[in-house]
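Structure (tokenized):
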């Protein structure tokens, strides 16, 4: 048995709908600008160019239903996204086989300190300070493929205090789930426990303490998170 010099941190994990087993998380990849309307609202060119990714930390995932307003920011945005959880991986995975590696899907939020992300972009610095902070990735239970299949179309919607803020359709993703998996596997070795946040539709906006965010994806249920 391995003896650690300091107390070993827990393995971050997510609940699975219909099971008492948990899904252990290894890495969190997030795609940027994967819906044309959001790309335009962020000042980008929606023509299909190579995708780009950033990462959050596995322990940034949070299923408590509460999102603590983070420190060092006065402009925190919601980005609602579909989470893709992998049960296996590899390198150079063909698009045609990519979905075989998916364990399940969940409704998730890529909460963003937009002011700090903006400063980082302007200074050509990495995005972690705006993206990979504590509890920055609220998410719902993982819905296994065995129950929900592979959702590739259907409404994606986020409301704040019952007012609709973001609306899109899974079929509007510029890079589809199998393409994201294939692309990532060209640059990284993917493995069981990796999750991918698949990008947000347009309508990202600021939240305040007390706001109740409700994110829905057709076929995957809803996620309710209160900003505290
Ligand atoms: Mn995002």
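Design, position by position:
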């Amino acid at each position: 048995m391995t003896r650690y010099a300091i107390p070993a941190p827990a393995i971050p994990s997510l609940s699975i709908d219909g099971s008492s087993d948990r899904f252990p998380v290894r890495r969190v990849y997030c795609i940027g600008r994967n819906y044309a309307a959001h790309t335009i609202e962020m000042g980008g060119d929606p023509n299909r160019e190579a995708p780009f990714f950033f990462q959050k930390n596995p322990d940034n995932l949070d299923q408590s239903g509460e999102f603590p307003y983070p420190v060092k920011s006065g402009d925190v945005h919601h980005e609602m996204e579909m989470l893709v959880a992998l049960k296996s991986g590899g390198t150079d995975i063909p698009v045609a086989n990519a979905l075989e590696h998916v364990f399940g899907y969940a409704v998730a939020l890529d909460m963003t300190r937009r002011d700090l992300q903006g400063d980082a972009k302007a200074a050509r610095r990495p995005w972690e300070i705006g993206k990979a902070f504590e509890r920055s990735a609220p998410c719902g239970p993982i819905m296994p493929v065995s129950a929900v299949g592979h959702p590739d179309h259907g409404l994606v919607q986020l409301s704040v205090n019952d007012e609709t803020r973001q609306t899109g359709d899974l079929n509007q993703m510029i890079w589809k789930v199998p393409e994201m998996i294939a692309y990532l596997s060209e640059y990284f070795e993917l493995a069981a426990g990796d999750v991918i946040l698949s990008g947000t539709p347009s309508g990202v906006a600021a939240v305040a303490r007390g706001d109740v965010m409700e994110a829905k994806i057709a076929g995957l249920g809803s996620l309710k998170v209160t900003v505290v």
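Reviewer-requested clarification: Residues 17-227 form a domain with the Fumarylacetoacetate hydrolase; domain 2 fold (CATH 3.90.850.10). Residues 69 and 228 are 6 Å apart (CA to CA).
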